[in-house]
Design goal:
InterPro entries: Pep_tRNA_hydro_II_dom_sf, PTH2. With about 240 residues, this protein is α+β, with helices and mostly antiparallel strands. The chain has a single domain, classed as Bit1, CATH 3.40.1490. It is about 30% helix and about 20% strand. The strands form two sheets. Strands 1, 2, 3, 4, 5 and 6 form a six-stranded mixed beta sheet that branches. Strands 8-7-10-9 form a four-stranded mixed beta sheet. Helix 1 runs parallel beside helix 5 (about 165-180). Residues about 1-10 have low confidence and may be disordered.
């Protein structure tokens, strides 16, 4: 099973899942690897939040901009479908993944390493051998209510997604918010350490969110859920 998801930015509004001109460009994928040790797996919500932050950290990294060493591949990735694949690692697998160029982002219990985008058929062997399945995680305790003054990535209450799928979707939501922010707003978010929460919306609230005009992720339907399903709304205070 491959966990892969597509979104399109606002210039291709309305984040449609049907074919677009972006499908004609060379396709890349953003690899995310979550550390899941048998004895101490991360909490689900923390893993989702850490994955979303990892995407933002890569986008904000100086190597991803201008003449940075990752800038060309990041541009190529964003010019095509925005794909993310989440894989898991532990022990020696994790150590090999950490040896590759990338950024490790740490949450309360989760560690997620994000790598510069790679061609769909050009994965480094150290990452290609990692498993996608087995990313099901639980929260030991229900997450606390989200701070309304901070960005919240609201998950659909109508969809049952694996942790890996939800991690990629949260990353999509964070990325859509990033695209919509001004340079000053991006800098403020970055300088604050990219605070954010990932929560599942109440059904009534979800209906409001999906018609609010906030950035909305629609899944391409390659895995787990139907094409065009609304998965995440990015509720950043600056975009309300």
């Amino acid at each position: 099973m491959r966990v892969s998801h597509d979104v399109t930015p606002s210039t291709d509004s309305p984040f449609r899942s049907e074919p677009t001109a972006r499908d004609q460009a060379p396709q890349f994928v953003l690899p995310l690897v979550v550390r899941i040790e048998k004895a101490a797996p991360p909490a689900r919500t923390d893993a989702l939040e850490t994955a979303a932050r990892a995407v933002l950290v890569l986008l904000a990294d100086e190597r991803s901009a201008g003449d940075g060493e990752w800038a060309e591949v990041v541009r190529d990735w964003q010019d095509a479908r925005i794909r993310k694949v989440v894989r898991r690692a532990r022990g020696a697998e994790w150590r090999r993944a950490e040896a590759l160029p990338g950024i490790t982002v740490t949450g309360k219990s989760a560690e997620v390493r994000v790598f510069p985008p790679v061609p769909l058929d050009g994965w480094p062997k150290e990452l290609a051998r990692l498993q996608v399945s087995g990313t099901d995680l639980d929260d030991p305790e229900p997450p606390a209510a989200a701070d309304p003054a901070a960005p919240v990535l609201w998950l659909s209450p109508d969809l049952d997604m694996s942790a890996g799928k939800a991690m990629a979707q949260a990353g999509h939501g964070a990325q859509l918010a990033w695209w919509e922010l001004s340079a000053e707003e991006r800098a403020a978010w970055r300088d604050a350490g990219f605070p954010l929460a990932v929560r599942t919306a109440a059904p009534g609230r979800w209906a409001e969110l999906t018609t609010s005009g906030l950035p909305l992720v629609r899944d391409a339907g390659f895995t787990e859920i139907a094409p065009g399903s609304c998965t995440v709304v990015a509720d950043h205070p600056a975009l309300r």
